[in-house]
Write a structure and sequence with these properties.
The protein is mainly beta and 175 residues long. The chain has one domain. The chain is built from no helices and 18 strands. The chain has strands at 2-3, 12-13, 17-19, 24-26, 28-32, 41-45, 57-63, 67-68, 76-80, 86-89, 102-107, 110-118, 129-132, 139-140, 150-151, 153-157, 162-165, 172-173. The strands form four sheets. Strands 5, 6, 7, 8, 9, 10, 11, 12, 13, 14, 16 and 17 form a twelve-stranded mixed sheet that branches. A two-stranded antiparallel ribbon has the order 1-2. The radius of gyration is 19 Å and the shape is elongated. It starts with a strand and ends with a strand.
Length: 175
């Protein structure tokens, strides 16, 4: 596909952008709302989880909003509008830190809100459900069971270290 800026008599070849008359194809990342690395919303298209070859990496829908109290890549955070639009690490021991918008920190105040992530510190059972953990910022395949703890499904294990992060909008506080 050829692109032009509209002000000169030239065009650039875009090998990662294709159009067959019906379908627009893109290989790589799509940035909405600004230039790459300064945008507010990024969606990266990768055809296979086998392309996630490095620990603490992933792809999918990411956002950059608010500020963060500490930034630990790979940890799960919740977005707290009452706390000044700030991201804090989750903790299934309390409803206040287990509900609302969740994201996996990917660095530089960026959060994966839906997509795939690799974390070599986990040893998940493939195909199993993943929950918020009572250990701050962690995920687990053990469903919380204590009084006052929150049960919230956040994803599914694709391999022992790669999971699909897609937090449920529903959660249960155990009595």
């Amino acid at each position: 596909m050829l692109t032009a800026n509209g002000t000169s008599n030239s065009a650039d070849s875009e090998p990662n952008l294709t159009f067959d008359g019906t379908t627009l194809g893109l290989t790589g990342a799509l940035s909405i709302g600004g230039a790459p690395n300064s945008n507010k919303y990024t969606f990266t298209i990768v055809p296979s989880t086998s392309l996630i070859t490095s620990n603490q990496t992933g792809f999918g829908e990411q956002i950059k909003i608010g500020s963060t109290v500490g930034t630990t890549v790979g940890k799960c955070y919740y977005f707290d509008i009452t706390g000044g639009n700030t991201w804090y690490q989750t903790d299934a021991s309390a409803a206040s830190s287990s509900k609302g918008l969740l994201g996996i920190n990917t660095g530089s105040n960026s959060y994966l809100i839906r997509g795939y992530f690799r974390d070599d510190s986990y040893s998940f059972t493939v195909g199993g459900i993943i929950y918020l953990s009572i250990t701050t910022g962690n995920l687990t395949q053990t469903q919380p069971s204590g009084t006052g703890e929150i049960v919230r499904v956040v994803g599914f294990a694709l391999t022992s270290t790669i999971y699909f992060f897609d937090p449920s909008q529903d959660w249960i506080e155990l009595a």
